[in-house]
Amino acid sequence: MIAGLATAGLLGAGFTGTALAGGEAWGRGAAMCVPTKGADCAGVSHKWKVDADGKNLTGINLKQARLHGASLQGTDLSDANLNRAVLKHADMDGAELDGARMRGVKLHHVDFSGVDASDADMFGASVKFATIRGTSFAGADLRGATFKSSTISDSDYFEQDGEAPQWRLNAHRGSLANSAGARMAYSVWTDVSVEGMDFTDSTAQYALWRNSQFRHDNFTRVNFRGAQFNQVDFAYSNFTGADFTGAAFDPQTLGGMTQAVIDRIVLEDVGVDDMTPGTPMIFTIVNNSDTWAGMDLNNGVTQRVSRSVESDETAYFFATRNGGGVTGQLDGVPFTATFDPSGGGELTWGGQSIALETCKSSTEYFTSSLGTRVYLTEVRTDSPRSPAFYIRLTIEDA
């Protein structure tokens, strides 16, 4: 019977009996195919009719396919080719996409919850109005991808206590909230809500983050070099060891890091947007002495940083106007930084008080000695280009 159909020309070119035996055909004419493991369905258009829940479609070629409204719940699409495919209003809950090629794919109004997209190549993907809960992007390539108006969460991935969460990964490493090692350089995150995701050791150079909420996320050792942040809420997130070298912030983002962990972050050469109100202070602490120096500082926004700064080590800290400034000790010496209503402030450290003035562009140097230590303070203001104080604090042996 199959041979007869093929002879009569009722099957599209290249449409084999083996493929037909695999199930219902997708598409029309020469673009028809039957979706099976490893099948070549490139360019197929089958809108609002796909029901492949739970099927094994590993290695299938769906390059440039148009599968609007597809039901792909629990479908195994591991190692599939979905480059430039369009899946609008699709239900992909629990699908397997590990190792899939998804360059330029369009996932709009999609349920992408519980998906394993580990090691997927999503370079330049477009994700809009999507629901993404408990999904793994571990090792995925998200460079140049755009995430817009989407909700991404898995609130059970971290444990926390009270107002000051103690961050640690849960015991089972297989949690689908794991996106560790994702490559996100040049990606764009706009109007999204992301909660409880683990981005440990990911790379996000020159990525753009704006008008979004990233709460309870783990950004340990993430490379944010050259990234831009505008009106982002990073409350309760973990930035231990994150590198923000050359990044640009608006004061609202810095002030929105409520109870975030900022231990051992790097803030070298960061910039502050001059279009939003606020006067943050960016501190660089350099220990040039032969022994460690204690650092115990509270900025009223993030979690307190209390640790030692080893000899020849550089540490970083910041303060924002909504947090009220800084209190604590540095090298065992009382340390305070306050803001005043005029936009300036005052820094007290090393036995001296230093007035901080805005509306000027200058660099000033101050030196004081206490016991066997010499404290050097450099205060730089770039106003009106940048509404921030850049304060470099150096500890030397007398």
Molecular structure report:
With 398 residues, the protein is mainly β. The protein has a domain at 277-398: Mutm (Fpg) Protein, Chain: A, domain 2 (Sandwich), CATH 2.60.270. Helices cover 4% and strands 30% of the residues. The protein is built from three helices and 23 strands. It has helices at 2-7, 17-20, 251-255; strands spanning 86-88, 106-108, 126-128, 131-133, 146-148, 151-153, 188-190, 193-195, 208-215, 228-233, 248-249, 271-272, 281-287, 293-298, 305-309, 314-319, 325-330, 333-339, 345-349, 352-356, 361-370, 373-382, 389-397. Strands 1, 2, 3, 4, 5, 6, 7, 8, 9 and 10 form a ten-stranded parallel sheet that branches. It has a six-stranded antiparallel sheet with strand order 15-14-17-18-19-20, with no helix packed on it. Strands 16-13-23-22-21 form a five-stranded mixed sheet, with no helix packed on it. A hairpin with a 2-residue loop joins β19 and β20 (352-356). The longest helix has 6 residues, at 2-7. The radius of gyration is 27 Å and the shape is elongated. The protein starts with a helix and ends with a strand. The model is unreliable at 1-22 and 155-176 (pLDDT under 50).
